[in-house]
């Protein structure tokens, strides 16, 4: 009996904690969504569906709103843009400058955990499978990346299109395991999805799922309005594409790239938005080389003899292969991302990976607008893509780094430069 009121109090305590947490979560959500496109006021004005539901400050409801969600079906009214992309096995170096670009010093003991090769340690160089662009279907000649685009590093070629266009990816797999190209955001049929699972299809519609070594497949993706900017977006949005044959292993091998879709009428001939001077595509990801299909290759090629007896149980070995990278670079080794003061800069940032891949890229020196809100840090989770617009006013060389403490130690830092 005496325990009863005590228990009740406890329960009340727990419930009020839950309620308080719930309120916090709801407040957070409400705040976020209210700031973006769905303010909670003036619902009545749009209830008949005749009001302009797309402007900030109006409720997102009614027929006009749902028409905007669906988008008009303008797919196929534009041009066809063909990209020749190969999955190539390459040797990738996470630290091509061989020093810590953030401190300007040689690597210290913490950095050496990840970048130094030796007995049972692979170091900074790994065989990887990366998407690489070619000039035509002969796959003889690689497309050249300008010095300005060197920062893209590990990422596959930027696929660009305008709403209404059709994207054609002529894909060749030169990697030693089956791979594919799976797009986000755009409209694809079952023969161009690039992911094997029991979806009730067979035969020809399965050829895209896993392209064997030395084989090819052509993926065709339409770009309807719903693949482009929505009511709250700027002139362009970002999607990613990646291999999805063995999704986890393939992406750890490095098979991932950015895609950009620009609103109809807002694109330059190359598909980029006319109102943006400078674009940067950035992937924050802990590349877990332990799960790469090329781990054995890497051990035999880059770790010197005297391997510890039980590598799979060696925690330090596991840690040494967790490359906390930005476009495949660690400890400030990424080629500089450069812009001018006053430029219209659009950052496309994304993440991939597992539960350690919650990243919070932070720009020193300048601020950005994300979803209509001013920020200098953006939130990423595995598989998320965020667009951030910046007009830099602060000249200098600035840090751009993940704000997660553990990731700072592990070298998830880079720099960008604003010229006068
Ligand atoms: Cu991080």
Automatic annotation (TrEMBL):
<dbReference type="GO" id="GO:0016020">
    <property type="term" value="C:membrane"/>
</dbReference>
<keyword id="KW-0479">Metal-binding</keyword>
<keyword id="KW-0325">Glycoprotein</keyword>
<feature type="domain" description="Plastocyanin-like">
    <location>
        <begin position="323"/>
        <end position="418"/>
    </location>
</feature>
<keyword id="KW-0472">Membrane</keyword>
<dbReference type="InterPro" id="IPR011706">
    <property type="entry name" value="Cu-oxidase_C"/>
</dbReference>
<dbReference type="GO" id="GO:0016491">
    <property type="term" value="F:oxidoreductase activity"/>
</dbReference>
<keyword id="KW-0560">Oxidoreductase</keyword>
<keyword id="KW-0812">Transmembrane</keyword>
<keyword id="KW-0813">Transport</keyword>
<dbReference type="Pfam" id="PF07731">
    <property type="entry name" value="Cu-oxidase_2"/>
</dbReference>
<keyword id="KW-0677">Repeat</keyword>
<dbReference type="InterPro" id="IPR008972">
    <property type="entry name" value="Cupredoxin"/>
</dbReference>
<keyword id="KW-0732">Signal</keyword>
<dbReference type="GO" id="GO:0005507">
    <property type="term" value="F:copper ion binding"/>
</dbReference>
<keyword id="KW-1015">Disulfide bond</keyword>
<dbReference type="InterPro" id="IPR045087">
    <property type="entry name" value="Cu-oxidase_fam"/>
</dbReference>
<keyword id="KW-1133">Transmembrane helix</keyword>
<dbReference type="Pfam" id="PF07732">
    <property type="entry name" value="Cu-oxidase_3"/>
</dbReference>
<dbReference type="InterPro" id="IPR011707">
    <property type="entry name" value="Cu-oxidase-like_N"/>
</dbReference>
<dbReference type="InterPro" id="IPR002355">
    <property type="entry name" value="Cu_oxidase_Cu_BS"/>
</dbReference>
<feature type="domain" description="Plastocyanin-like">
    <location>
        <begin position="154"/>
        <end position="264"/>
    </location>
</feature>
<comment type="similarity">
    <text>Belongs to the multicopper oxidase family.</text>
</comment>
<protein>
    <submittedName>
        <fullName>Unannotated protein</fullName>
    </submittedName>
</protein>
<dbReference type="InterPro" id="IPR033138">
    <property type="entry name" value="Cu_oxidase_CS"/>
</dbReference>
<dbReference type="GO" id="GO:0006811">
    <property type="term" value="P:monoatomic ion transport"/>
</dbReference>
<keyword id="KW-0406">Ion transport</keyword>
